Queue: 2 jobs
Job 1
Amino acid sequence: MNAVLQYTVQGLAAGSFYALAALGLAVIFGVLGVVNFAHGAFYMLGAVAAAVLLDTVGMSLWLALIVVPLLMLVFGMLVERLLVRWLLPLDPLYNLLLTFGLTLLLVDLVKRRYGVSGLPYERPSALDGRVQLAGVGLPVYQLFVIGVALLVCLGVWLLMTRTRVGMIVRAATERPELAGALGINVGRWVTPVFGFGVALAGLAGVLAAPFRAITAEMGSDFIIILFAVVVIGGLGSIVGAVVGGFLVGLVEAFGQAYAPTFAQVLIFVLMAVVVLARPAGLFGREEATA
Amino acid sequence: MNKRRTVATASMVMAGVLVTAGCGAGGPSAGGGDFTDDKVVLALLNDASGVYKDVSGPNSKIAIQMAIDDYQEKYGDEAVVDDIEVTSADHQNEPDIANTKAQELYDREGADVILDVPTSSAALAVATQAKNKKKLYMNVGAATTELTGAQCNKYTFHYAYDTWMLANGTGTVVTEDGGKNWQLIYPDYAFGQDMVKSFTGAIEAGGGKVAGTIATPFPNDNFATYITKAGAAKPQVIGTMHAGGDLINLVKQYNESGLKDQGIDLAVGLMFISDIHSLGVEAFEGTIFTDAWYWNLDEKSREWADRFMEETGDRPTYAHAGNYSAALQYLEAVQAAGTDDADKVVEELEGKKVEDMFLRNGEIRAEDHRVIHDVYLARVKGPADVKEDWDYEEIIKTIPAEEAFRPASESGCSM
């Protein structure tokens, strides 16, 4: 029982990174129709930025949780303005290739500048230690990660459902042509939404910094799992991204505990099963066949 | 709305591309000149951009150049060859690329010796090429004992370290110090499996037992549950056989798990000083590991490390020092033989007792071509004890050359 509680917390903590990043991926796909392959690289940049800011100006994790996503927001908007925008009218495959190329570029630039061994990171001491729950010591930091992820996901959900901006974004996600026909300027929201999605990946990176090895390659495996997450949740579905993220985290943790050899395979088995049963994913909208 | 489906399919295909992207073939390399007997070419073949770049990588080329400089300074006009070149290639840790590059280096670039070659599978591929081409190969960066075991050959020499030496150092000493009950966590590929075998042997020989082993995917970034599982068995020591980024992930998550406070220690199978430098001494404090060489060992090694630092800005790992020594000993053998003819150079090397900046009580064993030397058991210092950058290790024991490596009689090598 104690072990199950521990595995659950570990699974949810890992799932937090997936949920946050997948949320960004879903929002971007929803509004722009772009499958952002550079999302893993943006996650990596978030972690690297946190480590570099700590090292150079002594910025603590608390501040980095706000500053780094803001930096990534600006960076994401620049990427959209300067690169992604030009390819939007073309086949979606062009942006797939663009973001894939961007990943290779960013990873190599970080390698060149910061080497391959990774960067050190120390979290604030307030997040050290463990809390006792039902006789099990649970790491404070993992609980903190879960808490932040849930809060952000809740915030994004409220933003999407309770505000006018959210309404427009949702309308643009669900029926872009219709939203445009009704006089909503969808184009105006494209740049900030892309930036917002990138900021979420950056936030996941900052949260991962104290817990994972900060290397140029840290996003390479992450993005693969992330695509499994959005396929399971349903491409473009916001709720699906969050549920899929936590679900995959849990599958990973329990897989590691009870079937270590198959831990990673299990995620893709889950993906295959979901796609077979519901091709649009758990929360994806079934499309009328053309 | 078929667009959406196209994109979904395409993204899955691309995910597949990403998975296999790491296995891509190497591009064509610049063609070298024809082989001339007027010069000696030393070729460095290692990981110039991936996970092992900081362990050895391009800085080993500088180390080899230092060996050439030292050789030329020592012999001056007496040197049997004036024109000595060093060339390098990136094998991306892939055996097939290593295989192709080794052929290119030997045939087209006229390499007389290939040095380094980390990653066991790649190292063994190059050994086969060395055997076929009858050219020298001095491995520094790989860990497999196969190089001097079943797959040994006349032209292959193995420097610095191997899995037997690591297990013998860390496994035996930690067990004898009271860590009798072990859990081993290892990456599920050749190196990890090899390490588990070697460690189990060493731990049992020391009077301990391995109560359980846990295989993990490779590479992997989430070890939290594996660690919890290993800790649940209440061992005295958890041994990890991971390296590079995986090791850093594992250590971060071990520190997070609180097992340290419960008195469950972490022993690391393979670690380089570049790992400590990357993660910081706080994270590794107290960790015991086996080291083939340490830059601050004594005056001789420190003097060399200072030179290296002037050139590169970093302190050397033992792989850098090992490449220097291998290049130097090769040139010494060429000097003695008066030719770069491989068979004659091998004759000079075999059985030679060597003493240099890297090798203490060194001997190039004739039976299996294992280069034996003193190795060290090191403990990572606490932050309070660090007096300068890279001052991370306290040497707690010197393991004499004869005891440090697998005895030649057990190697299973026949040339």
Job 2
Amino acid sequence: MFVTSAYAQTTAPSATEAHEGVAAHGGNEAFPPFDPQFFPSQILWLAITFIAFYVFVKRVLMPQIGSTLEHRRHTIAGNLEEAARMKEEADAAIAAYEQELADARAHAHEIATKARDEARAKAEDDRRKVEASLEAKLADSEKRIASVKASAMKDVGSIAEETAAHIVERLLGGPAPKSDIAAAVKAARE
Amino acid sequence: MAADKVDPIHQFHINTLVPIHVGGYDLSFTNYALFMVIVVLLAGGGLYLATASRRVIPGRAQSIAEMCYEFSAAMLKDSAGNEGMRFFPFIFALFMFLLVANLVGMFPYFPTITSQIVITVTLALVVFFMVMIAGLVRHGLHFFKLFVPSGIPVVILPLVVAIEIISFFTRPVSHSVRLFANMLAGHITIKVFAGFVFSLGTLGALGIAGAILPLVMVIGLSALEILIAALQAYVFAMLACIYINDAIHPGH
């Protein structure tokens, strides 16, 4: 309903107006967009304004916007490059750090091993020295024991002869010849 | 009197502001010429001021201006390729001029430049002749291969060529009428519904209640018209890009 009445209103006045216009003023009141009276003016002013706008766009706006966009692209690309470079640096630093850590660990291990070996060697050495000195002392003691034993054994004969002489003196009331006693002791000891 | 108030054609009237007559031609500075100047100042000044600071991180206005620029560039590059970028200043100027003209026309009492068919025809003819001259300069007579699609059986070739030639030469018509008719019809429709609001409003309480529906229609149509204003500017520029592609790559 609205649509039909709208059509009625749009077409009716303009149609009658146009007809009247054609009749009365020789085309002055035609439907304005189709009125050729203003065509030259419209075209002229469109040409003037549009060409001016075109020249402005080409000479001023395009370089301005274009350079801004180009600059932005460069900045972004540069920043990305910088970021990539920094990342590489960081990666290199991490790699170097890890390498150093590994080196340090290896070094520490080496030092520990060396220290352990040295300690072990020293302990072994000490032990050997102590053992050697102990053995020397042992040998010494044994020698002394042997010499003491030998001297003791050497005295045994004379002590036994003396003791035997004393016992014989008590028992017999007089001294016995030494040679006899010695022979007797010798016989007894053997 | 009442018919005058609701006359939806009134908005398209051309009024002479400064009469200029040269050699029998009426070259007067009209209200439409004034708005051409305003549109150019708005578009040029707006884009200039928005991008004058050349910031790497753009503000809102600069973002919009750059969006328009890159949108036009993408539109041309997608249809005509890198070689077509020679026409970028023209396409960018055309798109911005039409977009701003259509949007300015959405303001009440402001004439819409593109609702005058002589304007759209002039622009369409500029595109048409630019394509033809660029094509002939670039490809010489090979440009006419445009009318001979490859891979067509010889039997129906004359028919196809005839159709291609007709479609090529009627391009300015469809190109210009599409924009003109959209703007004209849209503005007439809005004014018709606005006329209903006015007419019904004078009929008393019942009329005012009844006027709500056309008022809602006017609001809806205005929103639609803003969309169409942007869309038709895009369509006009897009078609220009496609025609330019024909000048650069005439073989189908």
